[in-house]
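re: that chain from earlier
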Amino acid sequence: MGDRLVQGNSEAPARMDQLQFFRFLAFLNVFLQHAPAWNFMNYPTFYATVSSISFFFILSGVVTGYRGYGAEQKPGAWDVIRYIAGKMLHLFPVYFLVTFISFVSSGALVALAHYRYSEVIPAAVQLLKNLLFLQSWEVSGYNSLAGITWFFSTIMFLYIFNLPAVYVINRVNKKKHANWIFIALMGCLFSLTVLYHYKQRFSEIMYYKTYVFPPARLGEYFLGILLGFLVRKNWSKAAVCKNKKTVFTIMECAVIIFWLRTIQAEVNTGPFYWGAYAVYWVLPNILLLFVFSFGFGMVSSIFRNRLLVRMGDITVNCVLLHVTVITIYCQITGLTGGGSRMVCVVSLGICLLITVLMASLMTPKKS
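^ sequence. v structure.
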């Protein structure tokens, strides 16, 4: 997560490779939501996407907490600024590409050529907001220019808390009964998240307020940070338990079946959406990440396969690119509404091809 997140002396592995393939599965759910023509098996894409986006936020927190174990140096304001700047720079090349392509294809340049400044100026302002990762703060513009980029706007806000959070958690970790303190905090965060969703249940912009609005994701994100820290803290103790492989294999099989079942559940998205969000999406993601973060079961061993890990590694760029690829392909073919099934299949293939090529070019070659 960055140089400032110093790893501690735990014997736990530096990476949780067994989680990578879940990232790719989550991306596929998001892709299916934006490629509805592929929906020939009545797959509940909306519900699966809501769960997958929640998974991404919680997973980001888990990785932060896991890698932040042992980071005891107090961060200053400039440390946080440099950390966020590094995150933005790492993401910016592909992010800028899809944002600019979406801006060009939106018709803004055509309007400029015909002196329709009343159309150009709002488009240019929105472009600037997107490039500064600010679009998720407005209900009217969060879905502009490549759509899914709102996720990265929200996650950048959450990254601001990474360094201070891991510093505070490491301080609390020195106290007696630290594990119980963390569990109690997780219970409070979960309750506050559910309460926030409950309070928004009749809002006219409930979807935005609970799904996109950056502060709405704080509960899930901090839940993930505490979960990742707990796993790293207790990994060594779990590693010496007898029959851990058998026990964790059973738990992994059970939790993955539960996760797959709930991720596809069709639920009421009206006023009872708040309850569905907690029970069908947040809780299953927390259980899945907790069990698999230890990586002791046979399913984890399978998921550490090099190919599956690589598929997870390219997920971020796949998420960034897929809407733009689908949109351009539909414009070329003259199809709308997600195109045809073949457009969806080819778009996914193009997405994977581009991201694999990018990964191969960016990976430093061994001398």
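The radius of gyration is 21 Å.
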